[in-house]
Description:
By secondary structure, this protein is α/β, with parallel strands linked by helices. The chain contains 39 helices and 29 strands.
Amino acid sequence: MPGHTERDFETAIEVGLTSGGGFRKRRPSSFDEVRALFPDDIVGFLKDSQPAKWESLEALLGPKTAVTVVDSLSKELDFKGALHVLRHGFKCYGKTLRMAYFRPNTTMNPEAAGKYAKNRLTITRQVSFVSVMKKANGKNRRCVIDVTLAVNGLPVVTAELKNPLTGQRAAHAVAQYKDDRDGRDLLFAFKRRALVHFAVDPDEVWMTTRLRGKETQFLPFNRGNDHGAGNPPVEGNWKSHYLWDEVLQADSLLEILQRFMHLEVKDRQVEIHKGMRTVRKEKMIFPRYHQLDAVRKLVAHAKANSAGRNYLIQHSAGSGKSNSIAWLSHRLASLHDHHDEKVFHSVIVVTDRRVLDQQLQDTIYQFEHKAGVVEKIDEDTRQLARALSDGTPIVITTIQKFPFISQALSTLEKRGAGVRIDTAGKRFAVIVDEAHSSQSGETATALKGMLNKAGIEAAIAAQLSDEEDEDLSDDAKAAVLRDALRRARQPNLSFFAFTATPKFKTMALFDEPGPSGASPFHEYSMRQAIEEGFVMDVLQNYTTYKRFFGLIKQVEDDPDVPRRKAGNALTRYLELHPVNIDQVVAVIVEHFCLHVMHELGGRAKAMVVTGSRLAAVKYKLAFDRYIADRGYVGIRSLVAFSGTVEDPDDPGTSYTEVAMNDGLAERELPEAFERDDYRVLLVAEKYQTGFDQPLLQTMYVVKRLAGVQAVQTLSRLNRMAPGKSRIFVLDFANEEREIYNAFKPYYETTPVGENADPHHLSQLQHALLEWAIFAPADVHGFAEVWYRGKRNHSAGDHRVMNALLDAVVQRFLDREEKDREQFRSQLNAYRSLYAFLSQIIPYQDSDLERLYAFVRSLLAKLPPPGDGHAFVLDDEVALRFFRLQQVRDGSIGLSLGDADPLKGPTDVGTARAKDKDVSLSSLIDRLNERFGTDFTEADELFFDQIRASAERDETIAEAARANSFANFAAYLERTLDELFIARMEGNEEIFSRVMTDLEFRSAAHGHLAREIFRRIRKKSASSTILD
């Protein structure tokens, strides 16, 4: 073992790179300080690898050749950058000179392999030069770098080493780069010379691609330790040995320069005093360790095992998934096996993110420097057919388009339109962005069927003679087999699925085992991402509120109501009640003004997550009204919901997103929210996934969240931004334990329960037939028509199928309600279980496939449970009192406890418990008992007394009759203290809260103003009618 000094550590790295790592040692004196290059290696490489061009230049330039060439190279580096020159070379007197040769994709070109062997990778210790930085005496400092790595004379890597045994760690190297290394020095100049800088000690590695003094951002380049940050112990070696033993080895470093590093360019519109201005931001991307590791392991496995595999890549938010997908798609598109055969003829990237297609094209263009490598497909069937048949390397589309394109292709083929996809003998890699949202049901089946059409038809021909069913025609038998085979795993397709939050089905479908012996194939945990500082902990400041309320029955009779539906109706009534909304909005606005709006240099933003489109509308109106009433400025809001919303409390009035956002088009909303004047976004089922806004710092939750939805929604907050050191969540709808249970399975590693038993399908099939609601003959009769093929369908076929299903529906309706719901539950269970298991297990039973088609259609025909309408109790109940109270504030820790395993589909189904009838009064009492604690009768009567006093005050009544509500509310605000003081005696506790708790007072004023205004106006209208 080497000694214990930093120099010994430096020597060990040098030996590791020169004794088998493909590097040669150089002396510091070989470094040209002026050009920040190694001229001897540049000249030696060019002479050795391109002798004819060198001789031609020498004949032209004579003894000045070397100096002229190095000068030309230096100018090109300053203009186009080191990475561009390494990939594409430079020109000198009309000759294009290559500065690196990369490993060819195949072994079929010995000349290319020979050129690759000509590369000269060198390591130089203690390179020194005069820096632009000054000493205290005004003289320039001399800068000394521990390790410099160069490719053919071009420096590409620098490293500062530290040794904990002598009191210094990687953090000291980071500080050294920030304080004592100047980005203006040519060796460190962004893009122009060294491309990446490492701070290294025996335990950890950190990296940066741009030195900017104190603003330099170093990222961890560690393997991770027990699902967290850092590196694991390595027997007989340094924890950080992978850097020089793996990553910086010559073959590895050249591959990174060829296939991974790229310049990310982003343009942003900013407001200036003269209007809008475009600001360009450039960032040199070097892969993080887990990205490099994942892509290389996936590529190696695909190379060794060819197609027909399903991989799950479970990478947390903040893992850099977009870049990982770009790198993987580019590598797979050019991958050849050990026999020099292409492993995949095309790579299909399935995504719902609009930004990914442009990012892929921009990134891959830097690698290939030619157009046509990436093609985006919308709904042009001919374009897709041409791209896949011609072997376009990378195709980007959304999985939702495949059923449409599949159907269109079939139609065009049958019309003889000359459009077809030839998949015979072809293999495809399918990269899925967000696996659980893209890879289930009939859309995935359509994709599989399209990409292996030739293989499926061949399998049908081989199996058709073994089909024993005499009740079906040969065409129908073939169609049954076709659907079953399309659903199964395809031998010519490999799926690479990325997600941070896999469901049980995702882990079962993408089952290629990883290091644990099970799915996922590769993992980068939420815990590691948080500890490494790539994302923020969204649970660090989590405040929950609880509603205390009392309901009162307004009708004289006491009707029996279905308990579950009535309970939901009462909850909905409460959630949309103006008192609830006003109090919640008061808390939100005051919290934002006090704690949020000044964060991030006054640019921090917030999101309000509502439970429905109507709730989003009501909260938007209340939010804007509250701000206007108090004269708050600088916190404009936007709302996001789909379609048109009708408010039952305001008949004839409808709302749209565009109208509520003052004409802002839906597609313009994300960009508008970037502007500094829009600070709060209220949403209903929009922007809760895939929305990336780093300035989003606070979330207000007024919606029930659970499982994956909770993780995805709250994770909108986790993006890093300069100055973003803390985030807030105020949750008015969920409890701490519920949020913990949602996040825990994805914090470290995701436990999975037992898989579904394949025999359950046969048991469910038997159980469904036992009901005698349908018979095997019904299934066979339906299948004969269903599988006839759409081109052969007629109006008569449509009539036959509906008549057959109608008879089954009638037998269903003849049963008692509890039997109907149990039967429906078993139908749903069969549909879910077969759709899941048929993708994993190659069933040979066509009866199961036919029953699946029958069950799907039957479920569509069955009437919905109950009467299909929402149960409403708005006129039967009233809110007697309401109070919002903070019950918890602090971090929700995920490090303790164990996660419950994810569970898969079963044969039990999702039967609804029978909804028992209860009296309305008993249901109200039960809710009041649960949520009405901590209130006294004085609390309930206090505001009634205030309201009554106000109504009797003729001055207040005249103000209500003569003014708009907004003016009346402002007037009442000035007289409210007198009303409260008049009722102070005997109500000291609530009086004190009204006078000291601004949020409570604001909500009380809003409620009282509306109620007093409404009642006075109503009385006035009644008097007018009587007169």
